Amino acid sequence: MSTATATETAPPAKPPAASESVRRASRRKKLVPYWLLLPGILWLVIFFAAPLVYQASTSIQTGSLEEGFKVTWHFQTYWDALTEYYPHFLRSVMYAATATVLCLVLGYPLAYFIAFRAGRWRNLVMILVIAPFFTSFLIRTLAWKTILSDSGPVVGVLNSLHILDITSQLGLTEGERVLATPLAVVCGLTYNFLPFMILPLYSSLERIDGRLHEAAGDLYAKPLTTFRKVTFPLSMPGVVAGTLLTFIPAAGDYINAELLGSTDQKMVGNVIQSQFLRVLDYPTAAALSFILMAAILGMVTVYIRKSGTEDLV
After folding, report:
1. How far is CA 249 from the centre of its chain?
2. Rounded Cα–Cα distance for residues 237 and 231 (Å)
């Protein structure tokens, strides 16, 4: 009697085919994230990893365009390139750092205004910030040749105010000229990369809860103290992101130095472009590219760790 009852109440055993289909479905479900990642991984492999490996092999080759290049593991190319073109590396870092600081000084007040004071004009101001992206980078830089021309109003005003006398003593300009000087190159870099600073700053400032400012006011904090103790610390992720998005492309840029500078203002990007397309010294150009990439990567890593920004680490 009890045996019959146990037999009747026991759940029916699953057929082997059903359990196997369940396992297959479970395996397919686990593989879905990897299939979704596959297009991005292929893109990185084809357009980033493979060219990087090819450039690495090119940097240790020797030969000429007529005879062909062969991998001879000639690491001396790195040292030769660094010792010959280190002034261009230093100039690139100096110009990029100066442009980044100017972008931060100019962009932070504008981003603050958009986030907290623009009101119904916010969208319009944001469009004005993004509008330069609808014009070619090259055309925007060429426009600065007209703006900073010797007979232009900008140079005329600077001369009348005797500002160029001060900048000439500082080595930023030459006489009554602005074009073909370090100041022109830095102005071009600052203008072209300013939106890359404003957008992350605005995104970071816009997330700050306005009630924090009210609480600071209730605690009798002055506006400057509120900015120093509340607003700026909370906007540090935007500051770090903006400075990185500005400094990294500015350090490798060559358009501004080519169009707004002279031979004395050439950056390392100009040297790489010349070695690749004019001199046709591919190993030196590849070595310079890797040295620049390693230098920027090292500086960025130190900067992020020193800034203590958890959002980016």
Report:
1. 5
2. 12
- Name the DSSP class of 13: P
| Per-residue DSSP letter, 265 | G
Query: What is the spatial distance between Cα 11 and Cα 57, in angstroms, rounded to a whole number?
Result: 65
User: Count of CB atoms within 10 A of residue 80's CB?
Assistant: 14
CA pair distance 175, 166, nearest whole angstrom: 10
* Helix axes 122-130 and 76-116, enclosed angle (nearest 10): 160
Please choose, from the candidates 146, 149, 171, 167, the residue with its C-alpha nearest in 3D space to the C-alpha of residue 91.
Answer: 171
Sign, CA dihedral 74-75-79-85, equals positive
What's the pLDDT tens digit per position in 189-239? 999 999 999 999 999 999 988 888 888 888 888 888 988 889 999 999 999
| DSSP 8-state code for residue 120 | G
For residues 16 and 11, give the distance between their C-alpha atoms in angstroms, rounded to a whole number. 15
Is residue 287 within 8 A of residue 77, CB to CB? The reply is yes
